[in-house]
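INFO  loader      accepted 1 record
INFO  loader      residues=120
INFO  predictor   begin
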Amino acid sequence: MRWNLRLKAAERGIWKSTEMRRRLAEYGLEISAGKMSALWTTTPTTIRLDDLDVICTVLDCAPTDLLIREPEQVEARRGQARNVRAVGDDGSGPVGGSPEGSAVPKVQPRLGRNRTMPPA
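INFO  predictor   done
INFO  writer      dumping tokens
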């Protein structure tokens, strides 16, 4: 995902993060200068939906205008994951023994007396 806050803000005539911060405060969203700087300059790893709702209200846009999908990045990561092979402890090959070499381990249920007791 690409974060598009600065471009959407510029389309609304907001050129500085301090101006954006002031407008967000008018709608009841008090953001620290540090957090506003991070939102303004980098892609956030997380964002509260309530905060996103206020940002979209201030910029008169939809969340899809701020979060731009990058399918080519997903495909690149997918290709890297295919190249990585999980090797079992004995070095014999992929975990789970699947012929395709997938990295998904086979789940073995523990039945009977081998179960652990729940915490007291």
